[in-house]
Design goal:
- This protein is an alpha/beta fold.
- The protein is 36% helix and 25% strand.
- It contains six helices and nine strands.
- The chain has helices spanning 13-23, 44-50, 66-80, 96-101, 125-134, 169-193; strands at residues 2-8, 30-37, 55-57, 84-87, 106-110, 138-145, 155-162, 197-200, 203-206.
- The strands form two sheets. A seven-stranded mixed sheet has the order 3-2-1-4-5-6-7, with helices on one face. Strands 8-9 form a two-stranded antiparallel ribbon.
- α4 (96-101) links the parallel β4 and β5.
């Protein structure tokens, strides 16, 4: 059984989807063993507690620099030594040392169809606001491996979502979460834990 660590900062809706998928047996060969939050007030911590999952807080505001925060986080991750790290609404950019140490073991869910509306500055409602301003008819979500380029790692799964004429960034965010993120994130985790993903030439190949 693969050990999964989930990194969170806020409400933890994607963590909730992962917990439910584990409970329902949708995630094969994997179990969430630890939740790490950068925010002591994150509701995600309550979700972990309710599911009897161990959690720790590494408060970003108590670190004087991103380097200090990264060092604290890396120490905890090395201690846990997970097989897979999932960024689920984690509002901090991971440092190079963490990415290098856990190469091809970190995944992220992003609320757009990468390469659209991704990279620096594209997070949370900003993504959906940009999509609406551009007038796209389809958006969605992407699960990808994490490398040193923001949202630039190999893509694992994507799912599209229709954009409605009367959408606001908030309504679109909810639809993308419900129809795409909560669907493909557990699927990607299950594929990885089952050894069905392989990265060749920066592309993910999914096997049977």
């Amino acid at each position: 059984m693969k050990k999964i660590t989930v990194l969170v900062s806020g409400g933890g809706t994607n963590l909730g989807a992962l917990i439910k998928a584990c409970q329902d047996g949708e995630i094969k060969n994997g179990k969430i063993s630890l939740v790490i939050s950068s925010n002591p007030n994150a509701y995600a911590l309550k979700r972990a507690e309710n599911a009897n999952i161990k959690s720790v807080v590494i408060d970003r505001k108590l670190s004087t620099s991103s380097l200090e925060f990264d060092q604290k986080l890396l120490i905890k991750l090395k201690e846990e030594n997970p097989d897979l790290i999932v960024l689920a609404g984690f509002m901090c950019i991971l440092g190079k040392n963490i990415i290098k140490h856990f190469e091809n073991k970190i995944i992220n869910v992003h609320p757009s169809l990468i390469p659209a509306f991704c990279g620096k500055g594209f997070y949370g409602l900003n993504v959906h606001k940009a999509a609406l301003e551009r007038g796209v008819k389809l958006t969605g979500a992407t699960v990808h491996f994490v490398n040193e380029e923001a949202d630039g790692g190999p893509i694992i799964l994507q799912k599209s979502v229709n954009v409605n004429d009367n959408d606001t960034p908030e309504t679109l965010q909810k639809r993308v979460m419900r129809q795409a993120e909560w669907n493909i994130l557990p699927k990607a985790v299950s594929l990885i834990c089952s050894g069905k993903t392989k990265i060749i030439n920066n592309k993910v190949h999914i096997g049977a």
